[in-house]
Automatic annotation (TrEMBL):
GO cellular component terms given for this protein: endoplasmic reticulum membrane; mitochondrial membrane; plasma membrane
Source species, domain of life: Eukaryota
Name of the protein in its database record: FLVCR choline and putative heme transporter 2
Keyword field contains Transmembrane: yes
Pfam families the record matches: MFS_1
GO annotation terms (biological process): heme export
MF terms (GO), sorted A to Z: choline transmembrane transporter activity; heme binding; heme transmembrane transporter activity
PANTHER family the UniProt entry points to: HEME TRANSPORTER FLVCR2, MAJOR FACILITATOR SUPERFAMILY PROTEIN-RELATED
Region (Disordered), start-end ranges: 1-27, 481-502
Major subcellular location class: membrane
Localization of this protein: Cell membrane; Endoplasmic reticulum membrane; Mitochondrion membrane
Species per Swiss-Prot/TrEMBL record: Seriola lalandi dorsalis
Membrane spanning stretches: 57-77, 97-117, 183-204, 224-244, 282-300, 320-339, 351-367, 373-393, 413-433, 439-459
Length: 502
């Protein structure tokens, strides 16, 4: 090897957010980030080139868009539940099931869908998700008649099935497309789309569907709402068919380069599930994550009922309060994602945000009945910042605890737990509200948030991916031409290369 090699490698170790380690890349490809770190590969020590493509941002934006479309449909009935009850002449429990069907469908279908994600990849999963989501919206267009509640439930079931193909993808997409210092942020952007959909679902339906008494006029407003969601879902489906790509031609990180080198027949999905179920820190996280997110699902589903009980006729403001919860949560998600990329303090951050979610829920519970809507807006915003901001933290922490298992599998188990607790909490809180009022219902959720906080404190912070990155050796070449190794100090949340600090 030539004498100028060490200088080239040392120069290549200089890293920035957009221009990671490279071997003095110049020329037409210099616009893209190129990394040429080494992966020890047997005795040959061959290096694997890695690159970040600009298209990664388009892919994550497209994913966020169809996640938004699907999440909007989850809450579009619940936030106008009193109007839907009147239009279809059904009980409140039936309307609650239009939301809970999203949770129920997830539980039996998550394992085959995760298997499909592992075997067929991101593009096939995205196409199936969008086909189901689009079909669900058009079925609902045909249900805008008072005697067709079963049709609207069928459309909601199709959309809920699409959700199973969506919820577990953010961490997987971030790993496949993004670099070491971007994965937590990319994962947060993926979750961001889902949260934005919920926010729009809180805001738009009360505006599009006013509480009028004339059934024909009400049917017209409901039909307009369904047509808008169907049109948006169709456009996004077409874009996914044209644009969405399975993976970049060159892997973004050394970890992804290694993952691509593993023969498919060496991976056992069943064995992976069993290993995860035997991972005690991860299983503690599965339960604590389910408790937190299940509380969020219950609050979101029953928000209209809670607000209307204390502030009659405020359907639109109920939607705005829901919007406040989610917008604050989106800010919290992005801040937490960036914080994790910078600090890698997974357990500390998760525990702190969980504790603050509990405090936020307590404050919200005891101020809801004060008679001042502006107080509810503030307390709901604080609650949303931490409770919704917790969502990507759970994904990221899980990937660290379960490395090198598939991100889709660990995320699927987290979401499965959330759906189970979501159904339990929604039904239970609804019954408690009917019998004892909203304060008792919210205190019921606070008890389980306290349990989740304690459980989070007992999670052993076994950050396996970080350990793997710290132990990995990066080839450097001594001035005499001999090969020596240097420890890498970089670490990543969803996946990542060994990124040296100069």
């Amino acid at each position: 090897m030539s004498d100028n090699m060490p200088a080239s490698l040392d120069s290549g170790a200089q890293d920035t957010k957009e221009n990671g380690p490279h071997l003095g890349a110049k020329g037409p490809d210099a616009a893209d980030q190129i990394e040429c770190n080494s992966i020890p590969n047997g005795e040959s020590g061959s290096a694997a080139a890695t690159r970040l493509f600009n298209k990664r941002w388009l892919i994550v934006f497209l994913f966020s868009s169809y996640s938004l479309s699907n999440a909007y449909q989850w809450i579009q009935y619940g936030i106008i539940s009193n109007i839907i009850m009147k239009f279809y002449n059904v009980e409140s429990f039936a309307v609650d099931w239009l939301s809970m069907v999203y949770m129920l469908t997830y539980i039996p279908f998550i394992f085959p869908v995760t298997w499909l994600l592992d075997k067929k990849g991101l593009r096939v999963t995205a196409l199936v998700a969008n086909a189901l989501n689009c079909a669900g919206t058009w079925i609902k267009v045909a249900s805008a008649r008072p005697d067709l509640f079963w049709v609207t439930m069928l459309g909601q079931f199709a959309s809920s099935l699409a959700q199973v193909f969506i919820l577990g993808m953010p961490s997987r997409l971030a790993s496949v497309w993004f670099g070491a210092d971007e994965v937590s942020t990319a994962c947060s952007i993926g979750v961001f789309g889902n949260q934005m959909g919920i926010a729009i679902g809180f805001l738009v339906p009360p505006i599009l569907v006013p509480n009028v008494d004339e059934m024909d006029e009400l049917a017209h407003h409901i039909r307009i709402m369904f047509y808008i969601s169907a049109g948006v879902a169709t456009v996004i489906f077409i874009l996914v068919v044209i644009v969405f790509q399975e993976r970049p031609e060159i892997p973004p990180t050394q970890a992804q380069a290694q993952a691509r080198s593993i023969p498919p027949d060496e991976y056992s999905y069943t064995a992976s599930i069993l290993r995860l179920l035997c991972n005690k820190p991860f299983m503690l996280l599965v339960v604590s994550y389910g408790l937190n997110v299940g509380c969020f699902y219950a609050v979101s589903t029953l928000l209209n009922r809670m607000i209307i009980e204390h502030y009659p006729g405020e359907e639109v403001n109920a939607g705005r309060i829901g919007l406040t919860i989610v917008i604050a949560g989106m800010v919290g998600s992005l801040i937490c994602g960036i914080w994790l990329d910078k600090t890698k303090t997974y357990k500390q951050t998760t525990l702190l945000v969980y504790l603050l979610s509990l405090i936020g829920m307590l404050v919200y519970a005891f101020t809801l009945n004060l008679g001042h809507l502006w107080v509810v807006f503030i307390t709901a915003g604080v609650l949303g910042f931490f409770m919704t901001g917790y969502l990507p933290l759970g994904f990221e922490f899980a990937v660290e605890l379960t490395y090198p298992e598939s991100e889709g599998t660990s995320s699927g188990l987290l979401n499965c737990s959330a759906q189970i607790f979501g159904i339990i909490f929604t039904i239970s809180q609804g019954k408690i509200i009917d019998k004892w009022g909203t304060l008792a219902g919210n205190v019921f959720l606070c008890i389980f948030l306290l349990i989740g906080t304690v459980m989070t404190g007992f999670i052993k912070s076994d950050l396996r991916r970080q350990k793997a990155n710290l132990q990995a050796e990066v080839q450097t070449v001594s001035p005499t031409g001999s090969i020596s190794s240097a420890q890498d100090y970089g670490a990543t949340a969803c996946s990542g290369p060994w990124q040296r600090q100069s």
